[in-house]
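wait is this the right file?? whatever heres the structure
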């Protein structure tokens, strides 16, 4: 039986390294350093879980169309992996904006940075 695939999208130094935790919980973790890399893999290897940081689109929100760095990924997940559980990690100052993403695809969990391994483990265990 194959392991469920987990995408870890690391776009900043604040993203904790939970690779050992993911392995311990039985996930095949694929690490990406950009949203573009994750999107390229999405059609061929749909994830069961996506862990990514949320960055609010303060001045570069494309004329009001996008809320954050996660919008395009969430739209693609609707098509290629609608069952995927998305866990967003967010800075405290931007926490108020992350819930807007639920209009695109309901988030499985939102964790405020810094995220402890126990918090992530609790979400992944369901």
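ok assuming it is, sequence goes like this
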């Amino acid at each position: 039986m194959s392991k469920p695939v987990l995408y870890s999208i690391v776009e900043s130094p604040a993203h904790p390294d939970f690779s050992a935790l993911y392995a311990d919980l039985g996930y095949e973790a694929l690490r990406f350093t950009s949203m573009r890399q994750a999107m390229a893999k999405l059609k061929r290897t749909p994830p069961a879980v996506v862990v990514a940081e949320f960055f609010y689109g303060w001045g570069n929100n494309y004329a009001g169309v996008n809320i954050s760095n996660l919008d395009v990924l969430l739209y693609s997940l609707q098509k290629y992996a609608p069952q995927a559980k998305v866990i967003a990690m967010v800075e405290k100052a931007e926490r108020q904006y992350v819930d807007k993403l639920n209009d695109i695809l309901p988030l499985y969990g939102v964790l405020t940075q810094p995220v402890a391994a126990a918090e992530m483990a609790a979400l992944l265990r369901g």
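The beta strands are 5-9, 28-32, 49-53, 85-90, 109-112. so i think its the right one actually
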